[in-house]
Write a structure and sequence with these properties.
498 residues, 9-stranded mixed sheet, 3-stranded antiparallel sheet, 16 strands, globular
């Protein structure tokens, strides 16, 4: 007997064709399911209706059928339906593939004032200038930058603390601006810094080139100083001084912040959010710990489970809704990203939620020593002694990097729709593959997805946001939809503050 059925077998008593779809029962209501199309359109349906759909028992003139057809889940027939809208929407959602990497990170120094226990890079003493990027490496990196085809380039300076090698920051910026006179790309500059010791002279330069500043603020003073110690125990005060000075020169929108969550942070979500409100921020990024650098050595003291993080997130989200209802606007940036995936069909700049993987296709990192990596996580692994994902160095052309074994390995495991378990997940059109994180946590670029922290975290957050939306009052629904409105392209830098 043939293992395959003829096309006619998929056309039942009611003459319609079922397009590929995936479904997931709602954890809070097992009689209903989240049903998604190949393009990421979705519908919440009763399980009895799902059964009627697959049994070809729906009538083409029913309201439910119209909803399914609008979301590219069924076709009424070749004579009145076309796959063009579905294909067009897939192209829109995957549009980031076409332009090449838009985010280019220059790691100008590994030196840093801080001794953060969760640091995901290999920081060095402030006097260790041998860990600064030199002129020849910087010049070659700029040449490689313009070999990529993207017409919109975000150039981010990182460390360590990049202000400890600020002369190189300025030199690279000037070289890029000069080089761009003929290339005519759209440029956006970002400095990821503690903002400590920021000077008016530096800010004059940053303002001239319309820089954005990204910093770390872990919450109230006691928590920030505990998480981010430095000599003098004045990290919080110095950070606030830097934020104030940065706003003076660049405006309120010119300075953003994120918090990295340790175990003690999970106890006080309300206090963290209230601190951001006190300082006038309208967004907050509640970032979990990463499995790299010093964070791996201190995990027993600072770490926590994904379930604990989701529990924290629920409390934080409830407080954010209350805050917005009181009249103060504040959004959580990762929630905004996931909601934009749910409620819009646009591509986004956040490389961790891309399929094919954003590593190498969405971002490139030029390290202080001239080595090149497809993501910041790959650089962190190399600092830990594992150079599996090194693409090469700045002396080599981009074509060499694209043909490297590291890139081949990333592409092989970088399409979430083709990965075991992911291929059947209803959220996969909205999610990413993240092969480097799975390699770091599980020793394999594909990984075991059912036990993956990446999958648990994103599935948990998608489930939670859907539950809040589906069970919310009209005001809260409007709030969540407002968070989903595409913002200026800040997603790609939301996860890499100092």
């Amino acid at each position: 007997m043939s293992r395959f059925r003829l096309p006619q077998a998929f056309v039942g008593p009611q003459a319609y064709r079922i397009l590929p779809f995936r479904f997931r029962r709602l954890p809070w209501d097992m009689d209903r399911a989240f049903v998604s199309s190949m393009a990421g359109d979705w519908l919440v349906m009763g399980m009895d209706d799902v059964q009627r759909l697959v049994s070809h028992e729906l009538t083409p003139d029913s309201p439910l059928f119209a909803d399914l057809e609008a979301r590219h889940l069924v076709m009424a027939g070749i004579d009145r339906s076309s796959l063009s809208p579905l294909l067009s929407q897939i192209r829109s959602r995957k549009s980031y593939i076409l332009g090449g990497p838009a985010l280019h990170i220059f790691v100008v120094s590994l030196r840093c004032h801080h001794t953060c226990s969760y640091c995901q890079v290999s920081r060095q003493e402030t006097t260790a200038t041998q860990f600064d990027m030199t002129g020849p490496h910087a010049e070659q990196a700029v040449e490689r930058l313009f070999e990529w085809p993207s017409q919109e380039l975000t150039i981010e300076f990182q460390g360590g603390e990049p202000l400890l090698n600020v002369d190189q920051v300025m030199a690279i910026t000037r070289r890029i601006v000069e080089r761009n006179q003929s290339a005519r790309r759209s440029l956006r500059f970002v400095l990821a810094s503690t903002l400590h010791d920021l000077t008016e002279t530096q800010l004059a330069f940053l303002a001239e080139h319309r820089f954005k500043l990204s910093t770390s603020l872990d919450g109230p003073e006691w928590l920030h100083n505990a998480n981010r110690p430095r000599p003098g125990r004045d990290s919080y005060r110095r950070t606030l001084d830097g934020i104030e000075l940065g706003r003076k020169w660049l405006g309120a929108e010119g300075v953003s912040a994120l918090t990295t969550l340790t175990r003690r942070s999970l106890e006080v979500p309300e206090a963290i959010i209230d601190e951001y409100r006190k300082l006038g921020f309208n967004s907050i990024s509640l970032r979990p710990l990463s499995p790299y650098g010093f964070a791996t050595r201190t995990a027993a003291r600072t770490g926590y489970s994904t379930a604990d993080y989701i529990g924290f997130y629920r409390r934080a989200f409830a407080h954010l809704v209350t805050l917005n209802r009181s009249g103060y606007a504040m959004e959580e940036t990762y929630a905004s990203l996931l909601l934009s995936q749910l409620f819009t069909s646009f591509g986004h700049g956040y490389v961790d939620l891309r399929s094919p993987s954003g590593a190498g296709l969405g971002a490139v990192i030029y390290d202080h020593d001239g080595r090149v990596y497809p993501s910041d996580e790959a650089r962190m692994l190399a600092a830990m002694g594992d150079s599996t994902f090194s693409l090469g160095d700045v002396s080599q052309p981009v074509a060499h990097w694209l043909a490297s074994p590291a890139m081949a390995r990333l592409l092989d495991a970088g399409v979430a729709e083709a990965l075991p378990t992911c291929a059947d997940c209803a959220f996969v059109p909205l999610c990413g593959a993240e092969p480097i994180e799975h390699y770091a946590r599980q020793g394999d670029v594909i990984g075991h997805r059912p036990s993956s922290d990446f999958c648990k975290r994103n599935m948990g957050l998608f489930d939670f946001l859907l539950e809040r939306y589906e069970t919310a009052d009209p005001w809260t629904r409007r709030l969540l939809r407002s968070w989903a409105i595409p913002k200026a392209s800040t997603d790609e830098v939301a996860d890499v503050a100092a």
